[in-house]
Write a structure and sequence with these properties.
One of its GO terms (cellular component) is ribosome. This protein is mainly α and about 80 residues long. Helices cover about 65% and strands about 0% of the residues.
Length: about 80
């Protein structure tokens, strides 16, 4: 992973790096690896994640087909 520092602005580069790491799931993985997870807990967690992914895909598919209303877009004002 690489982040460019522009105009010696290290604070902005750190924010970009943290955002990239968050998107990649690095923090979640570090937290999971910090302590031992029992195999039964791992099975339960992975099954819950799979169910969550399937529901999300089904929801998106229904929105594309027009069966569910699309989520409202956030309006930003500057």
């Amino acid at each position: 992973m690489q982040v460019l520092v522009r105009d010696n602005n290290v604070d902005q580069a750190l924010r970009v790096l943290k955002k990239k790491m968050q998107r990649e799931g690095l923090f979640r993985e570090m937290k999971a690896r910090s302590a031992f997870e029992k195999p039964s807990e791992k099975r339960v967690r992975e099954k819950a994640e799979a169910i969550r992914r399937q529901r999300k895909l089904a929801r998106k598919k229904m929105q594309r087909e027009g069966l569910l209303p699309a989520p409202k877009k956030a309006v930003r004002t500057r």
